[in-house]
Amino acid sequence: MTVKDRTQEFHAIIDSIASRSGPSSALPIEKVRLLNQPSTATLITTKSEFAKAAAQIGREINTTVTKLQKLTLLAKRKSLFDDRPVEINELIYIIKQDIAKINNQIAQLSAYLRKNGAAAALAPAGSTAPPSAAAKANRQIQEHSTNVITSLQSKLAVTSNEFKNILEIRTQNMKDQKERRDQYSFAPQQGGGGLLGMGGSQGGGLLGSSDSPLYNPERRNTPAPTPDL
């Protein structure tokens, strides 16, 4: 049996079908495929906004750490004459506000990541087809962003613990200073009444005895009365 080559006939049939159907028949399927994939521009925009916000939070944490270092130096001073309560209280208030604000910013950044990154990071459920390049890129971005948030949370936790320790040190130093002030205020005087109190029961001090010629100088020049003859 002779085999006949019908390759040219096959290509002719394909060309005939394509010419009758036109290019518009494949367009809706192509549109659906493209619309179901996250665009590269969207990924770049999301990554850029996230990176800017995370960098700003990191700078604010570093600024708070600098304030905390200054507070540590002031709070550890134990001298009564070198204490700066006004400056210390101002720093304590500012650092408290900074920690609360940064914690809120990290929570907002985490919510932003869940809203904008989770939907596009995973392939469709039940799909056996390999994920597209855009989906892989988005997954990598989300993993990196999650690590960034974890790092920011860890740094803030360390800063908060250090702040708590400094507050405890400051509280203890204030108690110690109060005890020393109380000791100085109520310490008993040594040596009795000083020069003015030396003429007590000892029988005559320098200024405390009425018999002293320094106390009654007029008695030295008064002549003794002569007896009547």
Structure description:
With 229 residues, this protein is mainly α. It has a domain at 37-123 and 134-174: Up-down Bundle (Methane Monooxygenase Hydroxylase, Chain G, domain 1), CATH 1.20.58. 66% of the residues lie in helices and 0% in strands. The chain contains five helices and no strands. The protein has helices spanning 7-21, 27-35, 40-75, 85-121, 133-185. The chain is rod-shaped. The model is unreliable at 29-44, 118-129 and 193-210 (pLDDT under 50).
Strand content range = under 5%
Instruction: Please provide the count of β strands.
Output: 0
Average pLDDT, all residues: 71
pLDDT below 50 for ≥5 consecutive residues: which ranges? 29-44, 118-129, 193-210
- Give the proportion of residues in helices: 55-70%
Q: Assign the CATH class of the domain at 37-123 and 134-174.
A: Mainly Alpha
Shape: rod-shaped
Largest sheet geometry: none
Which class do the helix and strand fractions yield?
Answer: mainly alpha
SSE ordering = HHHHH
- Here the CATH topology of the domain at 37-123 and 134-174 equals Methane Monooxygenase Hydroxylase, Chain G, domain 1
The total of helices stands at 5
Give the N-terminus to C-terminus distance in angstroms.
Answer: 193 Å
Name given to the CATH architecture of the domain at 37-123 and 134-174: Up-down Bundle
Q: Mind telling me the C-alpha Rg?
A: 46 Å
Organism: Rhizophlyctis rosea
Biased composition (Gly residues): 190-207
Pfam family, one: Syntaxin-5_N
Protein name: Cis-Golgi t-SNARE syntaxin
